[in-house]
Amino acid sequence: MHTLRSHRFTWWRNFLFYCFCVVAVLMSACSSTSSAVTAKQSPTATSAPTATPTPIITNTSLSALVANYVNSMSLNDKIGQLIFAQSYSGGIYQYPTSAIIQQFHPGGLIVYEGELQTLQQSQDYFKNIKAHSPIPIVIGTDNEGGAEWRLSNIFQFTPPSAYTIGSTGNPVYAYQQGTQMASYITQVGMNMDLAPVVDVHPTGFDRDFSTVPSEDALMAGSWLAGLQNAGIIGTLKHFPGLGDTYLDPHMGLPIDNSSLSHIESYGLEPYRLIINSATPPDAIMTTDILVRAVDPNSPAEISYKVITGLLRDQLHYNGVVITDALYMGGMGQYMCQLDNVQNCDPLTYARNNPSVLARLGVMALQAGCDMILGTYDVATTQAMVDAIKAALNNGQLTMARIDQSVERIIMMKVTAGLMKIPGMP
């Protein structure tokens, strides 16, 4: 899970060998590509100059270095890393995004297509953001292909959707498309993709790779491997799966009434398979959904049973977990009911009330999430920081719990090559 990004490239050779076995048509292509990769990874003695070997960092030693680094961070910087803010400045480095970056040092920033107008403008914007971030920041958006293509103003074409890719049944093609997506994202100056989707809808959906969980995992996992091996942080979503529901969580709270056995064999199966693959996801995004068989009381994003019990303990995922935007209609509906507010608009309740958004952030951290998506200006970001500090003071959160999340976030950034920490060669 914590192997440095350069070591991930060895997956490509194993991946092609797998394709050699299961896709007879691709035998020659797989063989030749594998040989090329092997040659790249194993240079001859005459092609490499004599040098002192670089010390190998094991997962254990890297974890210790990350823990030491986090130990040295200020409380404000730790809390900042938990925040995945929303860019809301017209694609120009100005208030409020500039203030959020400089005052709170957020761990991540999400940017939508309205702020991505031209290649040069976007590159300049992200260059300024990175220059003003004392701790390297992840910058991402939903670049899935098809209808979910945030770079449409910059690139005058649309990459194929997940369903189009999945319909080919060709994992090599899926890998290539993931690599191609990474190239577009890199050109713009971003370093993260909030994709791919691994929801499994029984009737098919443009954002899904397949209606069959194992095929969905193969194709989405191949696309993810191409993306991550090309240097972009990837994100599986929307845990624990929206496939058995049809209500958009932006509008309200979907409720999954499926049995636990169905959920485990259907919605969770792609996560299980990809988490245990050679290229597990850098991050997983959860969302607004009430899964009654797991937790009949709390939506997934703020459910300890879902995030810690299911994702952490049962599926053994120890990477970064990101919430969906906590101001969406699903969480708004839940908070309207929790606060017993009459004539409450779920679409605006959390978004327009910084204290409500901040309470949800604390609940998400208690559940086991690491990064909180949803703050979009100074007021909402300050409210989130204040709420986390208050939770630390009153015992709702512990410093050990905060450190746990910050270590995961820093580890993700280190393994993705975004930053080096003291002790690394």
Describe this structure in words.
The protein is of the alpha/beta class and 425 residues long. The protein folds into two domains: 1-47, no CATH class; 58-415, TIM Barrel. It contains 16 helices and ten strands. It has helices spanning 10-22, 27-41, 59-71, 75-81, 97-104, 119-131, 162-168, 171-188, 213-229, 260-265, 269-275, 304-314, 329-338, 354-367, 378-394, 399-415; strands spanning 83-86, 108-110, 138-141, 192-193, 235-239, 255-256, 283-286, 290-291, 320-322, 372-373. The strands form three sheets. A five-stranded parallel sheet has the order 4-3-2-1-10. β1, α5 and β2 form a beta-alpha-beta unit. α1 packs antiparallel against α2 (27-41), α5 packs parallel to α15 (378-394) and α8 crosses α9 (213-229). The radius of gyration is 21 Å and the shape is globular. It starts with 9 loop residues before the first helix and ends in a 10-residue tail after the last helix. Mean pLDDT is 89; it is low at 6-54.
Order of strands across the widest beta sheet?
A: 4-3-2-1-10
User: Low-confidence spans: pLDDT under 50, at least 5 residues?
Assistant: 6-54
CATH topology of the largest domain: the name is TIM Barrel
Distance between the termini: 20 Å
In CATH, the architecture of the largest domain is: Alpha-Beta Barrel
Helical residues, percent: 40-55%
Portion in strands: 5-15%
Structural class, please? Answer: alpha/beta
- Report the total helices: 16
Shape: globular
